[in-house]
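Progress against Task 2.4 (sequence-to-structure conversion) is shown through the following example record, which the project officer requested during the mid-term review.
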Amino acid sequence: MKFYLFGVFLYFSLSGYSQQCDYSITGEIRDIHTNQLIPFAKVSIPTRSTQTDSLGVFRFTNVCAGSLKLRCVPHFGCEPVDLEITVPSSEPIVFKVETHEVELDELLIEAYRFPRESREVMTLKTNDISQVKGNTLGDQLLRFPGVTSLNTGSSIVKPVINGMHSNRLVIVNNGIRQEGQQWGSEHAPEIDPNLAGNLTVIQGASGLQYGTDAIGGVILVSPDELRYHQNTAGWVKLTGNSNGWGGGASGLVAGSFTKSGKWAYRVHGTGRINGTQKAPDYLIKNTSSNEYSYSAALGYKGEKFETDVFYTKYSTNLGIFTGSHIGNLSDLNAAFAASMPKDTGVFTYKQQSPRQLVQHDLSKVSLAYNWNKRIRTSLVYGYQFNLRQEYDLHKAYNDSIAALNLPAFELNLWTNSLDLKTEIKHTSHYKSTFGVSGIGQSNVYSGRFFIPNFKKQQFGGYYLGTYENEKWLFDFGLRYDYSRLQVFMYKNNVLINPVKTFQNPSASAGVSRLLGYHWIVRLNAGTAWRPPSINELYSNGLHHGAASIEIGNDEIRKEIVYNTQLGVQYKSHIAKVDVSVFYNYFDGYINLQPSLPPMLTIVGAFPVFRYVQSDVQIMGMNGIIEIPIGKYLNYQFQGNLLLGKDLRTEQYLYGMPSNRITQRLRFSTLRTGSKLNFFAEVELLDVFRQKRYVDNSDYVAPPKGYDLLNTQVGITKKMNSGENLQIILACSNLTNLSYRDYMNRFRYFTDELGRNWTIKALVPFSIIKKEKKKRGF
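Structure tokens generated for the chain above:
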């Protein structure tokens, strides 16, 4: 019996020994929807386990021949996936697995550490923008310290940074510097803010790459990145408002083409209509509006080479308050003194004259090449066409011409731009950016004269550097620009074409120091400049959008500013504080100022404004403080203080925004891991009367200050795709207060808007292509 058992044992032992066990298994783990490789996924066989490397590849060695079961767990929280294979196998093994986000319990970290930015870089990201999506671009930026808005009439809103707007701010739309006929306060940026995925305000050295005019700062309006290697997704947004009984719809679809995911696309569209708007006590005649916009983008992203094309069109029709166009001087002076307009009109969705039609087309082609991990070169070409038509309240004297319904004047502006830059990461601490840029413009007008025909060329080159270690950050930049303007106009019935050239350097340097884990101190200093714009030099006539006569000055020289800014930040679980003080000295500040008395023309009586130049100082302080109150409440205090002074006349500077304080109390249940969240916010805006002005220097004295109560409530629900469904009910001017704002030129004639209820619904969606699981690959 012993020999029998020994023989059986020897037989099986020799059989096992003779089985070949020197095979290897190699495979990869991919997401079933995106086909992306999944790094650090767990893979096991009955005898042992391993992980995929950073490229999503795994390997087993010394595996025996025969049938074998592989098991993969992509990451924590995912269901395991099994696969039967036969060893040896001549084909590579590919796991197609399902992955999803797993939300862990909230972890509160008591210590905070700052990203060390020496310049002012403030960003509203996608989640923050969703709460204000549907508002104008100027309104969306109001949560930044130092940013206010300039309203003209009831529909035009543009941003103001530290008292500067229009030609002193550069707006960059998806990488292209926005060039429109927005020289004055009544021309809002021709951009659909619904497309914005990120809004960023930049002050300091980084702004140098965007050319001249960035005296007050740069505003970057950027859509979300194209969805390379991702499934199709998007959103639909619906809005409705009570003041004007208006509404709008906006939608976006984005995704990637082909299994490789290297090609991606995005399509977007918006439409909106609004009827006659209402002050607390009356309808503001002829203030209806409508607008539409659409865009499309297509991109390719390989390992070395990237390219994308982008096109957008924006169009709007705006009614101009009829009560601002008055037939004689007596009625104009009576309108200045009246508490409400003589003609309040009726509700309608149609625009009558005076009105504006504005259209803007923007095309972009960008190329980028990554030479290696440290060097990247990009080339961006942009083409823009801007059309502005203004229709007069008074018909042409010739009936046949009047029947054509032609605009009183039309402006056509074409812009071509080219930007080339190379970014180099020298070490882990130091990086550089070299760049050159050029712009060519042509403008043609028809109808009544306001702005002459012109051609403009501008060229510049720059260098930016950044050095950063654990405690310090230094950034600095230098730029030089040359600008040439040639004008074509008649003077005393003779065609003249004067040429003006301007050139100047710009420079900026900043430093920040991290103190412990809670404090950061930053200091910026620099100089910037801008050439005078065409309207500041040569405008001469009635500007319908502003209901005023504007007169330029062809003797105006370039404007140069020397600025400094000191800021302090603190952040802990107790509070967040960000406070800055700044000082700007302007050599040749260009300002549009009232020139009393008003003027009577053949189309009516209007206030007169002239461009003047002087040496000026603008200084101020702005800041924001956030204090958490318990688990769900948060209090926020935001303030802007500003003082402008003309150093030649030793008088206050005309047109400075009033000082203001904004307080917000926010209740939010938003917590990581919660599918359904609720928030409510109450905002009190205190705007002080502008007392720093020269008596009898304006047609109407600055209005009294005002307190506005605004509120909003909303719910968010996290969808399976990870995006948030959001419904918001908001109300501005909840108390229906009658007031006028100093910065609104139409304060001469009418109150601001009354109470306005707004409802917004943002519905995300995701389209997932299901694939059948296959054995092997």
